[in-house]
Amino acid sequence: MRLIRRILGFIGSILDRRFQKKIITFQQPLQKVQSRFSDMLRDHVKDWNGDINYRYSLEFVATRRAGWWASYPNLYWDTKLGFVLYVKDVSGDMQEKVPIAMIGFEKDSTCLFVRQVQGVEGKQKYLAPLYWEKLLYRVVILLARRLNLQEVRVPTADKSPYHPFANPEASEHLTFPQCQTRAYRLHFVYEVIPKHCGFKWRDEVQAHTFVLL
Question: Which DSSP letter does residue 130 get?
């Protein structure tokens, strides 16, 4: 058993190194995104009066694995690339930055495909001052632009594995009102917000698309 674990660990380390080489192309574009984040954040605060005692930050995430990650115990990832929005409450007892939302996406040669936009349960206090969904979409659009890609795409709400009416397994242990609430939330995040960000529906790809080129 110990030998098997060592072999699996060795194989995993090789795969991790290979994956890290693949994401080197993100480094310079990410510097551009980080340099713009403060301005983008300010543009997505609902009522900016200088008195918000929260310090927000953004972190790029890249891994060859999806699912539960040790670094993000409150987030289940459907993708291997994404951004995490953090907060630090400078007026309270919060000494460490805490993840409060994420956006996960996949990349091919021409497109970034957003698969997941999710707030962390129990962090509404920190998300409430922001149009945080729009902020995260804008961050991904900027990254795609810096990567010289052609499009950013977002699937319809019913393509989500968490849609209670499109995927029966997602409705287990939920009441009908809870299913309705979740379905509306998915519609808002994956259809309404993208339209506000300039995405257009394209029948040929069955997704909302933001054209960059």
Answer: B
Whole-number Å distance between alpha carbons of 164 and 158:
9
The amino acid sitting at 23 is: I
Q: How far is CA 73 from CA 68, 99, 100, 185, in A?
A: 6, 10, 12, 23
What does DSSP assign to residue 96?
Answer: S
Give CA torsion, residues 184, 190, 195, 201, to 10 deg.
-110
Q: What's the number of domains the chain is made of?
A: 1
- Residue 10 is predicted with a pLDDT of 66
Beta bridge partners of 4: none
Residue 110 placed within a domain? yes
Cα separation, 9 vs 13, whole angstroms: 6
Is pLDDT larger for residue 170 or for residue 134? 134
3-state secondary structure 105-129: EEECCCEEEEEEEEECCCCHHHHCC
- What's the pLDDT tens digit per position in 136-180? 999 999 999 999 999 999 999 999 999 999 988 888 889 999 999
Within-domain flag for 62:
yes
Domain enclosing residue 72, as ranges? 25-211
Report how many helices (DSSP H) and strands (DSSP E) the chain contains, helices first.
6, 9
Q: Tens of pLDDT along 103-130?
A: 999 999 999 999 999 999 999 989 999 9
Residue 18 in any domain: the answer is no
